[in-house]
Amino acid sequence: MKEHPLSRYRQEIDELDMRILDLLNRRMRLVQEVGRIKAQLGLDTFDPGREEAVCKRLVENNSGPLSDASVRAIYREILAASRTLQQPLKVAFLGPHWTYSHLAAISVFGHTAHYMPQATLVDVFDILGKKLAHVAVVPIENSLEGGIGQTMDLLYERTVRVVGECYLEVAHCLCSTAPDVKAIRKIYAHPHAVGQCRRWLSENLRGVEIFECASTARAAQSAAADPQSAAICNTKAAENHGLHIVAERIEDHPGNTTRFIVLGLKDNAPTGDDKTSLLFAVADKPGALYKVLESFTHYGLNMTRIESRPNRVHPWQYLFFADIAGHEQDEIVRAALNEASERTTFLKVLGSYPRANPLNPIRFDVERARFGG
Ligand SMILES: O=C(O)C(=O)C[C@]1(C(=O)O)C=C[C@@H](O)C=C1
């Protein structure tokens, strides 16, 4: 009988898979050993600097055809499986499941972490502060809407460390159990999502009543219970509530991205490509802010963000949130921070962490195709 043209390839793929599985298990046995030593030494299971070094080394040596993004995505799950063997990592985020915060958390910690959805951002900070979660993932700024005020206020008030960041593309879909757009009489959506899809809604669903929900995931839940309705949500929320996608990418501005930060309670070691987040206040006198900024320019440090926020304790005074290139332990960053602290009335370093690339955000619809949900 003639051999099927695929069988030779499939046989070799099966053999390679067995070898990959064997290698993964050998890696996991070493990881278990590392876990035992870390427990004896009282070290944290999660080491973001080491994880970034592992991924960076692989990407730098990747000769293809696997894309660098695929290498990172595969290793995200391998590292998640490693941590799960050592001690499942408890990750708090603003819930319910399948919010954009949840997707951001999965993009950093993989599918096998222990996810702990919280009702409010205050609860997210509280559960981390009480050490009931190891890390938390919170939104800090959006490319269209700017800073997330409540997160900024909590960073000022609480003692937590910023240990990581990630950029997530916010791609909205119209999802429903209804067969098509003509059957839709109601829309459930988060107010931000409505704002970001205004043009599409007026062209396609003009006059249809909109019900505001606390999150995109709640919107999906409500649409699932009402066959004449639709939700504006992400593809994962739709999938998990049994909705199908009526229209994809309905946001007015493609490239809508949210930056999330990972919070922990311990500092990161330098990786060689880090960012440091800080917040400060200055005296009410001419040139005070300029003088602080000069401290960073003086040492040639790039400032990637600066944003002001009203000081809620002292009305009409302002706090400045800034990100600079480099790690708190780098000599020039230390020198710049020393100089800046003499020119501020208050300065708090929030943490140093591996830098993520804003121009290459995580795209969940692409991830979905790779991982099959
Ligand atoms: O090297 C370590 O510290 C490990 O625990 C191993 C490992 C890995 O799988 O490579 C797992 C978890 C850490 O966050 C970093 C790396």
From TrEMBL:
In this entry, which stretches build a coiled coil? 6-33
Q: What's the main place this protein lives?
A: cytoplasm
Ranges for domain Prephenate dehydratase: 90-265
Gene Ontology MF terms in the entry: chorismate mutase activity; prephenate dehydratase activity
UniProt keyword annotations, A-Z: Amino-acid biosynthesis, Aromatic amino acid biosynthesis, Coiled coil, Cytoplasm, Isomerase, Lyase, Multifunctional enzyme, Phenylalanine biosynthesis
Q: Where is this site: Essential for prephenate dehydratase activity?
A: T258
GO biological process terms held by the UniProt record: chorismate metabolic process; L-phenylalanine biosynthetic process
Q: Where is the ACT domain?
A: 277-354
Enzyme Commission number(s) of this protein: 4.2.1.51, 5.4.99.5
> Where does this polypeptide localize?
Cytoplasm
Q: Which GO terms describe its cellular component?
A: cytoplasm
**Pathway info:** Metabolic intermediate biosynthesis; prephenate biosynthesis; prephenate from chorismate: step 1/1; Amino-acid biosynthesis; L-phenylalanine biosynthesis; phenylpyruvate from prephenate: step 1/1
Name the residues that bind substrate. Answer: R10, R27, K38, D47, E51, S82, Q86
Chorismate mutase domain boundaries: 1-90
Q: From which domain of life does this come? A: Bacteria
Reaction(s) catalysed by this chain, per the record, are: chorismate = prephenate; prephenate + H(+) = 3-phenylpyruvate + CO2 + H2O
According to its UniProt entry, the function of this protein is described as: Catalyzes the Claisen rearrangement of chorismate to prephenate and the decarboxylation/dehydration of prephenate to phenylpyruvate.
Q: What is this protein called?
A: Bifunctional chorismate mutase/prephenate dehydratase
Organism of this sequence = Desulfosoma caldarium
Upper classification of the source organism reads:
Bacteria, Pseudomonadati, Thermodesulfobacteriota, Syntrophobacteria, Syntrophobacterales
